[in-house]
Amino acid sequence: MKDRLFKAALLLAACLIILLTAGIVYGLVSQSVDAFTHFGIWHFITSADWDSRNERYGALPFITGTVVTAVLALLFCIPFSFSVSLFNGEYFRNRKPAVFVGSVVDLLAGVPSIVFGLWGFYTLRPVLVGLGVSEQGFGVLLASMVLAVMIIPYASSLSAEFIGMVPNELKEGAYSLGATRLEVIQRVSLPVAGSGIFASYVLAFGRALGETMAVTMLIGNTNHIPRSLSDTGNTMASIIANQFGEAGGLKLSSLMAIGLLLFLITASINFVAKYIMKVVSR
Amino acid sequence: MKKTFFSGPRYRLAKSRLFFYAVCAFSFVSLIPLFLILGELVQKGYKQFNIDLFTRVAPSSMEAMLARISDDPLPGGILNGLTGTLLILTIAILLAIPSGIATGIYLAEKQDKPLARFVRSLSDLLQGIPSIVIGVIVYIWVVKPMSGYSALAGSVALAIMMLPMVIRSTEESLKMLPLSLKEAGLSLGGSYSRVMMRILLPSAFSGLFTGSLLAVSRVMGETAPLLVTALGASTVNWDLSHPVSAVSLLIWEFYNDPNLAGLIWSSSLLLLLLVLGINLFAKSIAQKWKIQ
After folding, report:
1. Model's pTM, two decimal places?
2. Residue A248 CB contacts under 8 Å (≥ 6 apart), including other chains
3. B171: contact with A, CB 8 A cutoff
4. Chain B contact for A151, CB < 8 A?
5. Exposed (0-12), middle (13-18) or buried (19+): which is A263, by Cβ within 10 Å?
6. Does residue B225 come out as left (phi exceeding 0), alpha (psi in the -120 to 50 range) or beta?
7. How far apart are CA A206 and CA B73, in angstroms?
8. Annotated domain spans of chain B
9. ipTM confidence score
10. B125 and A267: CB-CB below 8 Å?
11. 3-state secondary structure chain A
């Protein structure tokens, strides 16, 4: 009797997750229907207008802003996170330097987004202004630089694990044929761990897409498509954070629609990453 | 094949070594931001890091401006933020941890059943949802029906963010236990629920505890979802159905109000120390209990 109750409670908890997800999807869809029917789905996605006075809304500036900052952040972060993952997974695996580097990088993942925003605002922005990138320093470049730092832990810790999982026999075989360490990494470790490393970068990319506070503080919040790296812009997450409080009616629905699009994009990115990992670990 | 310098062993070894140095250099550079951030917060925040920070509520823009004009230190602290964070987090923990642990047990027990697989991928999906989207959803489901921003809405948002982490850590730590443990319990005549609650869960406790603490530290500094759910308040409030402030929300307010900018650093320092402190504590526990 007690067992049956216990098992029922477990099942109930599991079903709660299903209910929760369904509620999230239903909520987003039902709230964004207004915007989609009013503007048309395709037009909403491809329109660059964001005009509160004339009630004309389109998501294109924010989609481009989000994708551009995330791609740039990923590009900036690759040399660093790749080095960290080799340092931890290959050169110093399970030894003190790797433990140290690993835990410091892990701590970086714990730093709140808003603190990263402050750091970007007060420390990096003056540097960019000094270099003459733009007058105020705000913009796509600043936002993606800070984003790059924020995703280093996500990209590096998982790929370090995949690099560490490369069987020793394979590497020893290569060494015994006279390969140098670099050649072993190039010809053995990377080909074996490659798809896993790729998957962890996809996951990090998904993180960068959804990041809100730091980007909101740094990108400049102008509702147009950024024309250059030093131009200001806005991302899907930051337009929601910025304008949600004062929004109502069609604007609120448009913001919800942007939320739904962001949800769909990050969900599919995560799905791709998880799928690759599943195939790799098989 | 013709032998040149570039195929010779000396060149190859030099290249390999050079690559190693490059890896070390880049890894080292990756560590710098954390120390830069910590250094900046300590350097700019230690002056305001006093007892007032913990005992007084945030000043209004007016008070701060008057203090600035007469060159006094900024009055007030972040008491309303601290109590708000405490309230929101407590309720979030109460919501997320029991249901997360129960789901985790279910997943660990049912491993490959279709429903378990489905729930597992949904939990992964939840983990990937951007925090602002979670905030917006809670706005629809909690703030709107309750016709107002509230501490409860903030807790629900943070609980949804914690849930996947708690589920994952429960499942992983239960799966690491040897099967014989469960079999021994059952063969002694223990009922299923008894074996689970008295043997398996206590054995997996360290993993569970660490996972939950990490989840708490991860959501502690969240700002975006609270912005659209808990809103913020200028006084200390313990009522779940009313708007409430949080440390991260106060930092956001200070950042947006030039008069209050002087309080940014001490409150950020406190937040960062809390988050990193819990993080390190959780990891040290994991290490300690793993050895035994």
Report:
1. 0.94
2. none
3. no
4. no
5. buried
6. alpha
7. 43
8. 79-291
9. 0.93
10. yes
11. CHHHHHHHHHHHHHHHHHHHHHHHHHHHHHHHHHHHHHHCHHHHHHCCCEECCCCEECCHHHHHHHHHHHHHHHHHHHHHHHHHHHHHHHHCCCCHHHHHHHHHHHHHHHCCHHHHHHHHHHHHHHHHHHCCCCCCCCCHHHHHHHHHHHHHHHHHHHHHHHHHCCCHHHHHHHHHCCCCHHHHHHHHHHHHHHHHHHHHHHHHHHHHHHCCHHHHHHCECCCCCCCCCCCCECCHHHHHHHHCCCCCHHHHHHHHHHHHHHHHHHHHHHHHHHHHHHHHHC
Tens-level pLDDT at each residue, chain A (282 residues): 788 999 999 999 999 999 999 999 999 999 999 999 999 999 999 999 898 888 899 999 999 999 999 999 999 999 999 999 999 999 998 899 999 999 999 999 999 999 999 999 999 999 999 998 888 889 999 999 999 999 999 999 999 999 999 999 999 999 999 899 999 999 999 999 999 999 999 999 999 999 999 999 999 989 999 998 889 999 999 999 999 987 788 999 999 999 999 999 999 999 999 999 888 876
Would you call B148 helix, strand, or coil by DSSP?
coil
- The answer for B 22-61 residues in CB contact with A (under 8 A) is 22-27, 29-31, 33-34, 36-37, 40-41
Cβ B16 vs Cβ A180: under 8 Å? yes
Record: contact A80-B27, CB cut-off 8 A? yes
Q: Which residue of A has its CA nearest to B284?
A: A103
Place of tokens 């360290």: B206
Judging contacts by C-beta atoms under 8 Å, the chain B residues touching residue A106 are: 279, 283
Interface of B with A in 106-125 (CB under 8 A): 106-107, 109, 115-116, 118-119, 121-125
**C-alpha to C-alpha distances, A122 to A73, A136, A152, B36, nearest whole angstrom:** 19, 12, 21, 12
Q: How far apart are CA A158 and CA A106, in angstroms?
A: 11
Burial class (CB in 10 A: 0-12, 13-18, 19+), A110: buried
Enumerate the residues of chain A whose CB falls inside 8 A of the CB of residue B192: 3, 6-7
Q: Do the Cβ atoms of A101 and B31 come within 8 Å?
A: yes
Residue recorded with tokens 């329109």 = A47
DSSP lists the bridge partners of residue A50 as A57
CATH class, domain A50-281, is: mainly alpha
State the Cα–Cα distance between residues B127 and B169, nearest whole angstrom: 13
Are B69 and B62 in contact by the 8 Å Cβ rule? The answer is: no
Look up the CATH number of domain B79-291: 1.10.3720.10
CA distance B214 to B166: 9
Domain residue limits, chain A:
50-281
- Contacting A residues, span 88-147, partner chain B, CB-CB under 8 Å: 91, 101, 103-108, 110-119, 121-123
Nearest beta carbon to residue A115 from set B24, B160, B272: B272
List the 64-83 stretch of B: residues with Cβ below 8 A of A.
none
Structure tokens at B140: 């629809």
Q: Does A219 touch chain B (CB under 8 A)?
A: no
